[in-house]
């Protein structure tokens, strides 16, 4: 992503998926908001995680 010129990144995690939330927090992601995905089959509440500077992620090995 960084090579493509992106400086930040965000993703959504289904609210209640505690394992995924802990994983993204361990990678430095910070919760930045919530949204409801209407989805094609069911609605889901989601938490948005952001990394304002993806250099931190690029440095992880």
From TrEMBL:
> Taxonomically, which superkingdom?
Bacteria
Name of the featured protein:
Acetyltransferase
* Species of provenance: Serratia plymuthica
Organism ancestry? Bacteria, Pseudomonadati, Pseudomonadota, Gammaproteobacteria, Enterobacterales
């Amino acid at each position: 992503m960084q090579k493509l010129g992106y400086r930040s990144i965000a993703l959504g995690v289904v609210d209640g998926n505690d394992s995924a939330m802990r994983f993204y927090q361990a990678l430095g992601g910070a919760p930045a908001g919530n949204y409801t995905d209407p989805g094609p089959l069911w609605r889901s509440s989601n938490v948005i995680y952001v990394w304002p500077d993806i250099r931190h992620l690029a440095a992880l090995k």
